[in-house]
Write a structure and sequence with these properties.
This protein is an alpha/beta fold and 198 residues long. The chain contains eight helices and seven strands, in the order H-E-H-E-H-E-H-E-E-E-H-E-H-H-H. The chain is 38% helix and 16% strand.
């Protein structure tokens, strides 16, 4: 591995965030999932969750959409909603879903400096009632147009870039958040050899 490549990978991993994640529930189109992966990589989100409990598990994601982002982020796949929620609760303080409801808060009211899991539902019916019931609340992206919804990959991008803005202002990208042994495990998965790790 060249010194330049090593420096680039270390620079990226040093800015990875371990306190925010995206959850995609029953998303039909693998290209939408891949587009979300690419956006998460761009803002330093290391882990995402793909929950398929009413549709078949995806065998692969859209390569062109992701630009191989799946190589750089960690994808947890679940087919059981309860197990997915349990896994999220073990790592994140709050679970928020995208859902248009009377009690939904605006995206801009969310405090993204806390440990958050953000759930996006499928292209037809959104987040399921089961997941909404298990979550801590709902949020919406403010809109003034006739169509009150966005493509899931666009909605996710708008949301995580607001998270990126808040977390940047709070200094979250100024210190390393991924701890050992995960840090070394990720580097190894990214192509580091024992010699590169020295």
């Amino acid at each position: 591995m060249t010194p330049e490549r090593k420096e680039r990978l270390l620079s990226v991993l040093n800015k990875r965030q371990n306190d925010i994640t995206v959850v995609l529930e029953n998303v039909f189109d693998p290209h939408n999932i891949s587009a979300v992966m690419r956006t998460c990589d761009a803002v330093g989100i290391q882990e995402i969750y793909v929950l398929n409990h009413t549709i078949p598990r995806h065998k692969k994601f859209g390569f062109k959409s992701s630009r191989s982002a799946s190589k750089w982020i960690t994808v947890h796949q679940f087919t059981d909603a309860g197990q997915c929620i349990k896994a999220l609760r073990s790592k994140y303080d709050k679970i928020l879903t995208t859902h248009l409801s009377n009690d939904a808060i605006s995206l801009h009211q969310i405090n993204f400096t806390q440990k958050l899991a953000l759930v996006f539902g499928n292209e037809q019916v959104g987040v399921s009632e089961e997941i909404r019931t298990a979550a801590d609340g709902n949020f919406i992206i403010p809109q003034v147009g006739m169509i009150r919804s966005l493509n899931i990959s666009v909605a996710c991008a708008v949301t995580v870039y607001e998270a990126f803005r808040q977390k940047s202002l709070a200094g979250h990208y100024d210190s390393v958040k991924i701890q050992e042994p995960q840090f070394t495990n990720l580097l190894t998965g990214w192509g580091f050899s024992e010699a590169d790790l020295d």
